[in-house]
Amino acid sequence: MGARIIDGKAFAATVRGQVAGHVARLKADHGITPGLAVVLVGEDPASEVYVAAKHKQTVEVGMASFEHKLPADVSEADLFALIDRLNADPNVHGILCQFPVPDHLDERAVVARIDPAKDVDGLSVVNAGLLASGEKGLVSCTPLGCLMLLRDQIDAMSGLDAVVIGRSNLFGKPMAQLLLQENCTVTIAHSRTKDLAAVCKRADILVAAVGRAEMVKADWVKPGATVIDVGITRIPHPDKPGATRLLGDVDFAQVSEVAGAITPVPGGVGPMTIACLLANTLTACCRAHGIEEPEGLTA
Fold first, then answer.
1. Is 121 a catalytic residue?
2. What is the pLDDT of residue 239?
3. Residue 8 in contact with residue 269, Cβ under 8 Å?
């Protein structure tokens, strides 16, 4: 019997619908429109596609979208001056700078310049610290999306064994913190982990985020486990010269015969990222105005 396929695209649409409903009520009851500002430095084609998608979905849920496109040679001082203006703007509740930025700019310094209360990417050390200490902050969008998918699949995560493969600040560490908050027993595995397959094999929840195509095989997975594949690797398409296809960190064909539920690549975790960005912007807006924040859209 094959695993249930976790449809991230459909679930993300549900999240966006929930956000849109809350935005409509904020407008009707309080006269407030959540606003998201996106800063794009340079003309990276992939970044332009992502920014366009964020703008489209922001407008679709009824939020205000503020786009700021800066030249690739913009100085750090000019970029910081823009961020400072956005920090002070009461109509802007969420700010993100699309990465990567040109080499002369320090991504960590850019994130640090954003007001943590408006850091809807959840990347600042302040928000990381709030998450680690169990206090309210803004959670990085991809881990938050994975948490939402897991909550939808598993009625009670308390007491389950969870393994996160990958220890990055962007995903692995916050994902582990979120699972701890759900009372899972959490292991963070990585390239130096001894007998990685055996560590993964004991997991009721297995989350892979290392960027190594199809690394996780069927014999790494506990029968019935819930598998969340965050990895994305683009490889040449075997049947279409010049074309490419996307692979995850999990060997989907093999593992779907063993797991209880699994996210595909593409169509699993990826669509949740922008949906959670919108959810974070809504949450930031509610907190800024002292309004009760919506349930189910935050950690």
1. yes
2. 81
3. yes
Q: What is the model's pLDDT at position 235?
A: 85
Q: Please name which of 152, 122, 120 lies closest in space to residue 283, comparing C-alpha atoms.
A: 120
In the chain, the amino acid numbered 276 is C
Catalytic one of 18, 54, 222, 251 = 54
Name residue 266's amino acid.
P
Q: Are 57 and 88 in contact (CB under 8 A)?
A: no
CA dihedral 205, 207, 212, 214 (to 10 degrees): 40
Compute the distance between CA of residue 197 and CA of residue 42 in angstroms, rounded to an integer: 42
Question: Of 18, 57, 119, 121, which is the active-site residue?
Answer: 121
The DSSP bridge partners found for residue 77 are none
Q: Could you read off the pLDDT of 207-261 as tens digits, one per residue? A: 999 999 999 999 999 999 999 999 999 888 888 888 888 899 999 999 999 999 9
125-132 vs 172-181: helix crossing angle, rounded to 10: 30
Q: Please say if 54 is a catalytic residue.
A: yes
- Residues listed for the chain: 299
> Catalytic pick from 18, 98, 153, 177?
98
One DSSP character per residue, the chain reads: -PPEE--HHHHHHHHHHHHHHHHHHHHHHH----EEEEEEES--HHHHHHHHHHHHHHHHTT-EEEEEEE-TT--HHHHHHHHHHHHH-TT--EEEEPSP--TTS-HHHHHHHS-GGGBTT--SHHHHHHHHTT------HHHHHHHHHHHHH-S--TT-EEEEE---TTTHHHHHHHHHHTT-EEEEE-TT-TTHHHHHHT-SEEEE-S--TT-B-GGGS-TT-EEEE---EEEE-SSSTT-EEEE-SB-HHHHTTT-SEE--TTTSSTTHHHHHHHHHHHHHHHHHTTPPPPTTS--
